[in-house]
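User: two proteins, same treatment. go.

Assistant:
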Amino acid sequence: MWLHKVARMSRFHTPFEIHVHGQVQLRPDVDFAQLQEALRPLWSYAGAHSLADGAASAYEEEPGILFEQATGVLQMCWTVSGDTDFRQALDDMCMGLNDLAQDGAAIEVTFYDAEFDEEEADDEQESRDDFLMLFVGPTPAAIMSVQRDLLVRDIIQLMERHFDAAELTGVVTEVDKLFMQRFDNLVSSLDIGKPPPRGGPRGGSGSAGNGRRPRHLH
């Protein structure tokens, strides 16, 4: 079902355009009411009164927030105007999705500096763009599995410029050891039976500078 009505953007002259992008496989028993509550931090931040009201992106060419009820897949390609306080909304959203997710999933969040003009900027000016990779899942193990797969993919793509894929087996083995050690530490600290840290583990974060990340096009 499409959740694509005009969102009421209550924030004006905000320093960032914030793009949330990801796909989460939800449990088969999850209904619309549960999803609406889990995503409340997003649509509430946008000034909407419900998920259906706030699911539309600030850009018409982006699908927004889409719940494919037949497959149980939540898709997000959604932009909202905001400030750094949106990070708290992201943490709260991840906590909600942790309870509904069937598998681990990654969610990309990009903060675009709304005041930065690439054409007018001189060599000394840099944008305040920032990028976060968030992870959600039903268990820490599910989250770590996604983190591991993304890290291995990135390492392979980088190193295949210089080495054959067959030569990188040892690198992948070492990455697996690191994640196994992290998982063992979770178990030994008795945290494995608790929810993942607030907001779910985060991946890379940092300013994009003038090399701005391209928007997702659909």
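Protein 2:
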Amino acid sequence: MKFSIVTISFNQAQFLERTIVSVLEQGYKDLDYIIVDPGSTDGSREIIERYRSHFSHVLLEPDQGAADGLNKGFALATGEVMGFLNSDDTLLPGTLSEAAQFLREHPRVDVVSGDCDVTDERDHVLRESYSDRYSLRRYVYGVGILIQPSTFFRAAAYRAAGGFNVHNRVAWDGELFADMARTGARFARSGRRWSCYRLHGTSITGTGKLDALMKTYHARMFERVMGRPRKRADLLPALAYRVLKYLETPRALQQRVLRGPVYRRVLTPQVKGQ
């Protein structure tokens, strides 16, 4: 089973080499690794050049943003299964082999998601985080969240969904998964930790700098899936889904109680490294 992994890189030289090495050290033989960098000026391109022989393709051209860069990368992909890894995240050892085994054993599954360690810029583990059981309805009520670097999907599901929305600048991964569901993709969780998702002072999640755009995005997706705007009465099903989430994954509740919400980790440096 051949995997295609795309990494989008832009001015994250501090983390980029760790990302690349985490993919190469998978030791997965049938791997198509593609990197896209639209114009880094911080030394990232020098790192890419050092590893050039390990990439199937290196795209060094301007793009319209991360979603556009990912579309360009996946246009060159030849694998049966795809995944994408941001240049500040890493794969845990054995991830690709485990994902391949899961998909071989579950041929009707199109998208499989694992869990992750949330880390800081120094690779200290802050907490664990878990992919939710996925459906469109769950997603628009806020509890259909998939751990993006721990998610892999069949190439046919990606192409049926039409790729990433290049106009989405805040949640291109979430919209892709929703589009896959809308075109019939079947989702599953592996129950395995497959990646390290990094929060730091310049990450979108870590800073909350795009909160207003995220609010607009979620309103758009709710109306698209439900066929109407969100109402005050939707607070009740949203709460019910959240309770169900924690009943299904008690460890997620434990992490929430002990470590707090993922979103606030980078805003509370005194608890880093716990």
